[in-house]
Specification:
Elements lengths: L1 H20 L19 E9 L2 E10 L4 E2 L2 E2 L6 E2 L2 E3 L5 E3 L1
Antiparallel strand pairs: 1-2, 2-3, 4-5, 6-7
């Protein structure tokens, strides 16, 4: 039993030594910042599913020249193709 205990202690010592030798420390400093204010265009959209309607706002970004994608209300991921489910939530198509 004492040999097994000694082996476990040696293993723990080697693992901690390995972690210390392979540890990586990263630091970052802010060099410069540029704040850009863009005027965006907000477009009111009315989405219709059967007899239900939902109003949403689509945002056009002039810098990227695209309409910003909406987010899936189930996963909070940006999506380009979507459907409205029964509760009128935006979901991935």
């Amino acid at each position: 039993m004492s040999r097994i205990e000694a082996t476990h202690r040696e293993l723990e010592r080697k693992l901690s030594d390995l972690q210390q030798r392979s540890a990586l420390t990263i630091s970052a400093e802010l060099h410069s910042v540029m704040v850009v204010w863009l005027q965006t265009v907000q477009i009111e959209c009315e989405l219709v599913r059967k007899k239900n309607k939902r109003n949403l706002i689509a945002i056009y970004n002039p810098y990227t020249q695209i309409i910003e994608p909406w987010r899936c209300e189930l996963t909070n991921q940006p999506i380009n193709k979507f459907i409205l489910d029964e509760q009128m939530r935006i979901a991935r198509a």
